[in-house]
Amino acid sequence: MVRVSYSALEIVDDFENLDHELVREAMRITGVTSGVEITTIADIPSRGTGLGSSSTVTVGLLNALHKFSGHDASPEQLAEEACRIEIDILGQPIGRQDQYAAAFGGINSILFGSDGVSVNPLDISCKSDISDQFTLVFTGLSRSASEVLEEEPDNPEDKLSRMRKIRLQADLAEQYLEASDLYNLGLLIGEAWEAKRGISSGVTGTEIDLLHQEIMSLGASGAKLLGAGGGGFFLVHGTPSFRTKLSGLRQANKLIPVGLDHKGSTIIYEG
Questions:
Q1: Between the chain's N and C termini, which has fewer beta carbons within 10 Å?
Q2: What number is the average pLDDT over the span 27-52?
Q3: What is the pLDDT of residue 248?
């Protein structure tokens, strides 16, 4: 028997009958297909937030199931297996950055090439400043990342140009982090939002644009929606004094300070 508790409750005799696709495929890959109870708990909505929650759940599931079967899985293995589940098996039109971020933790430069993936930790001295100056603001909206990503653009060439610009901005972000230049990093994420919001009509909307304007009017140096867009969380940069102004935001009850995790997916208890 398998019992899975999340926003729904499933109790099945055969794991193949599970509706939760991520759990079902993680069980298939690890070979743990019976005699388990799986419960997922999150501090954020489980889907459509732009924070990589689905990939994080997949990585965590794989890690726990491998450990349950008596094996230790490396971060590389966890990330690759999570990608295989979400992209190859379930056909999600997503990238691979979320899986690697969840598996490795830390602040990294991740390069995806034809010959594999390289994860290079960044040596930075502004870690406490990142926590002091960056905030997540929930829009109150959630959306299917797949629907946003699958939307056909009106101008494919313009979309490609914007995506190339965002790719180059990743290199700039690495330079700013290593130089502890968080102000220019804040400006950069604002530029990234301007490039991103024109990729397709599903990326933003009136309510999102109004919230962005409100955030910027309070003195933020930059803000952008994370993930595919269409809802979820804004990543916002501003000085510590600016963050006090966010308490007056209409979304003030949906503010989350940014913390840094350096371990990635971790087993915290073994029975």
A1: C
A2: 89
A3: 76
Pick the CATH number of 2-121 from 3.30.230.10, 3.90.1300.10, 3.60.120.10, 3.40.50.2000: 3.30.230.10
3-class secondary-structure state, position 38: strand
Strands 233-237 and 134-138: antiparallel
Query: Per-domain residue ranges for the chain?
Result: 2-121, 127-257
Output the six-digit token pair for 56.
């994080």
Round to whole Å and give the CA distance between 111 and 91: 22
Reply yes or no on whether the pLDDT at 265 is more than 70.
Answer: yes
Region for residue 74 given its phi and psi (left: phi exceeds 0; alpha: psi -120 to 50; beta: otherwise) = beta
CATH code: domain 127-257 is: 3.30.70.890
Give CA angle at 196 (220, 85), nearest 5°: 115
pTM over 0.85: yes
* Residue type at position 111: L
DSSP 252: G
- Rounded Cα gap, residues 207 and 115, in angstroms: 42
Contact 30, 60 (CB under 8 A): no
Q: Are 58 and 86 in contact (CB under 8 A)?
A: yes
Average pLDDT over residues 197-214: 89
Token pair of 205, please?
């909307």
In 3-state terms, what secondary structure has residue 87?
helix
